[in-house]
TrEMBL record, chains A, B:
It comes from Lentibacillus kapialis. Signal peptide: none annotated. Residues 106-251 form the Phosphoribosyltransferase domain. This is Pur operon repressor. GO terms for molecular function: DNA binding. Pfam families: Pribosyltran (PF00156), PuR_N (PF09182).
Length: 269, 269
């Protein structure tokens, strides 16, 4: 196979298999090329990945030597994306009763969702994460987009148990903003004991839902390494029950009467 | 930019932007290269895409000339993937009360989910589809994976209305297998009138849920162009309420007593 052909094939392979370790000899075998040629290929791929701001190739030498693609959305790409997101969200027709914001169109756009996942995953790529956890339903696409980049599975906490998931662990918790008692359920066999977890959700107000998830995860001795949300509501900051989290955007000053809204960068940067 | 660099960058661009039309001059500008060089690049990319069985580049000549990446998972890749899927599912420890099958681990694996999406999208890539519709919760990741390849948005039908989605249309329907009356809700502004729709779900027994969705979609004058499911239950075939659909696998002969199960290729091939 010629270099040009190998480069196209390699790029496809790396993008399909983020954070997966592959040995150099296996590339040599696949492409019937010398290791030195493969090394040159990899340095070209690595350079372009960095120039495009999508990540880099990490090389490990030694017996277990090889290479893996570490997705790492550049600061520039991330900032530009969050700028656009703020602009899109700052549209007064999005204001819904109760100070909520209509975001279903954004959460329904796979390309948008994949970009959000890339930004969140880049923020957490240096952490040890075994699994991404979210709660049904709105956070699900974001959780998959993030997990896809981190190359880990997704576990979904539900509000109601399902017959198709076997026995479950459930907790009751008090929702932060409405002060109502709610239930959360996680199937027993969905999460191993002591896993390193990253929580992903679409929206955080006072943080009651995420606190509930943390309690439920405690029953599995999980270690919450990171919390990432698309948007946080600024006005609930004082009563917030969650300390450390990453948000892409912050919703400020939702004025139902005047139909105005302010959307700023979150604490991501 | 050199050819080798361009090839890596182009491959990244196409994989990120499936089914998106891009003009040749815009590539010439971006890479500061002659149109003839770009044409040669594209033919290399196209050839390798076809060799790897992931799709091809579609070229349109004329004033609106340009190129788009059409993802098209090869029959060979699809069959091999479905083989593995059957093998994984045919594990007796997956049998749950009621003849259900534990599939949360598969549906929780982003790589698996993306592959399923690729296979389903390939089956529907020749159809005109404006939006992928699914019902909460298990079908959601499959819907996004499919929509991502088809480059269309996802709309999620819910069992309960949400304050964050504005006014909604709801219907009641009779579930096929349990004969219970259930509700389905779709926010008014989530789907435009007369859209071409592809329904995606994880599991189909008698087909009541999908029938319910079809009725609800009727309220939006939507045209259901395709129905795709990961798995169908074979034993419900006689009473099935849905005629035309695509399934990747077929669950046969679930024997709760002897703890045996048979999983075969669905009607995909």
């Amino acid at each position: 196979m010629k270099r040009s052909d190998r480069l196209v094939s390699l790029m496809n392979y790396f993008l399909e298999n983020p954070k997966e370790h592959t040995s150099l000899p296996s590339f040599s075998d696949k492409y019937k090329a010398a290791k030195s040629s493969i090394s040159e290929d990899l340095s070209i791929v690595d350079r372009i990945m960095q120039e495009e701001g999508i990540g880099y190739l990490q090389t490990l030498s030694g017996v277990s030597g090889g290479v893996s693609f570490i997705p790492d959305f550049s600061r520039e790409n991330s900032n530009q994306f969050i700028d656009e997101l703020c602009h899109t969200l700052q549209d007064s027709s999005r204001i819904l009763p109760g100070g909520y914001l209509y975001m279903s169109d954004i959460l329904g756009d796979p390309k948008m969702v994949n970009q959000i996942g890339r930004v969140l995953a880049s923020a957490f790529s240096h952490l040890e994460i075994d699994v991404v956890v979210t709660v049904a339903t709105k956070g699900i696409p974001l959780a998959y987009a993030t997990a896809s980049v981190l190359n880990v599975p997704v576990v979904i906490v539900r509000r109601d148990p399902k017959v198709t998931e076997g026995s479950s662990v459930s907790i009751n918790y008090v929702s932060g903003s409405s002060r109502k008692i709610q239930t959360m359920v996680l199937p027993k066999r969905s999460l191993r004991d002591g896993a390193n977890v990253c929580i992903i959700d679409d929206f955080m107000k006072a943080g009651g839902t995420i606190n509930g998830m943390t309690s439920l995860l405690g029953e599995f001795n999980a270690k919450v390494q990171a919390i990432g949300v698309l948007a946080e509501a600024d006005d609930e900051e004082d009563e917030r029950e969650v300390d450390s989290f990453t948000s892409l955007v912050k919703i400020k000053n939702v004025n139902m009467k005047q139909k105005t809204i302010e959307v700023r960068h979150g604490n991501f940067v």
